Amino acid sequence: MAPIWPVVALIGLLGLAIGSFLNVVIYRVPRDESILFPASHCTSCDEPIKRRHNVPVLGWLMLRGRCACCKATISSRYPLVEAGTALLFVAITAHFGLSAELPAYLYLAAVGVTLAMIDFDVRRLPDSIVLPSYVISVLLLMPAGAVTGEWWVSVRALLGMVALWLIYFVIALAYPRGMGFGDVKLAGLLGLYLGWLGWEALLIGGFGAFVVGGFSGTALIASRRVTRNGTIPFGPSMITAAVLALFVAAPITHWYGSMLHMS
Length: 263
What we know:
By secondary structure, the protein is mostly helical. It is built from 9 helices and no strands.
């Protein structure tokens, strides 16, 4: 079903609001702080942020990237996370339409942005986010299979979850310096979503992470963000490859199939 564009616009606004909340999660969860209390405040002077300054993206622009009270610099990453989440929400809604599985993939976008940023910051994928996401994702995806009557899609999603978890588990055992068990847990979650889309998406998203990781690792070393012997977070590459697979798996499969027919 084609998406209704006014609804897509509303989804974009929802993405901005959720992106603002994700900034709180990204900052507080690694510090073991509550994501609910206290209210949003400046991390330099602890002054509560006024409501008009807490509007996603616009608030940062109004303040010109500085705290209204102490004039400390506010990272540009805050509006980028908000805008990026909104763009992902719009793209996913345009891709899936107003379908039964849309809420699940919007959740994937939100949790993916959160985990990618946290892993980049502290080289950790918190269990407090990853493990509950298994439950939430299953509860969102499985009813979607029941709505469409395609029970095999739900089974394939669960098989994809197990398959990608096992593959990454073996890699982590064989090469513990290159992959942590946080990546293994994330692989199972991503495998659930990729398996729902098909085996081609699972293959492209699961193994495309190593291609993305190679490029991103080279870029980080070249920019001197990390040294050759430094730790490079793999979670962002896994999430990037999985999200890309949502959009490119079907076209790549179609192109490859047409090439086989031509030969």
